Amino acid sequence: MPNDFELNQLIDSFDRLKLLVDPQSSYVLNAHYAANRTIDDIIINSFFATAMTGETGTIPITLPAAQQVVVTQGSASNTNLTVAKLRAARKLLRQAEVDLDADPVTVVVSASQEDSLMQEAQMIDLDYTDMPVLVEGRIHRFMGFDFCHSERLPTDGSGYRRIPCFAKSGMHVAFGKTFRPTSPAVTICRACRGKAYVMLSVGATRLEEKKFVEIKCDETMS
């Protein structure tokens, strides 16, 4: 179901209100950034939340334990994000017949996971790959996965960071008609002559459990 949000920014004077005519004004930009953070939080929450299915959307589906890569992988003890964990996630997706070429897979990581991966020889040594993984100090693509950075990822009850790894067709984000993701509906409230107004309507959910993998990471082991 969609989530509806509104943000009113009170303006102290007519002079400040005039600044809103500039699309790059601080009021408009702050409203835009706030809307985008809200969208991020809704999407991130939907990664791990209970999904509703059935004809009337009343059947709850929790993420199966089989779609989780545990914090201890292989012979290693508790670890942050490693190549071994990425391989385990990739195996689950391939077993579900996810086409990594036709159906892009994204891994969302925080700075802690980025730093952990940069300590892996497979990520930085060209002896392991024919293309550099690090580009200008950032990990963009590895093992068929695209990497996206966020510092808003949650932790579980054990304090482990929850890393989403998902095929594009396995997730869905929907926006209301009055909103576009590249330009939130920021308007000047001329009737009250003292507000900048932003609104959005957005919802997200998992579509197919086998196209989503949760990787648990212990950030104390970086």
Architecture overview:
Strand 2 and strand 3 form a beta hairpin. About 5% of the residues have low confidence. The strands form 4 sheets. This protein has a 6-stranded mixed beta sheet with strand order 4-14-10-5-9-8, sandwiched between helices. Strands 1, 11, 12 and 13 form a 4-stranded antiparallel beta sheet that branches. The protein has 222 residues and is of the alpha+beta class. The protein has 5 helices and 14 strands.
List the helices and strands and how they pair.
Elements: E1 3-10, H1 14-18, H2 26-48, E2 51-53, E3 59-61, E4 68-69, H3 83-95, E5 105-109, H4 111-117, H5 121-124, E6 134-135, E7 138-139, E8 141-142, E9 145-149, E10 161-167, E11 171-175, E12 185-189, E13 195-206, E14 212-217
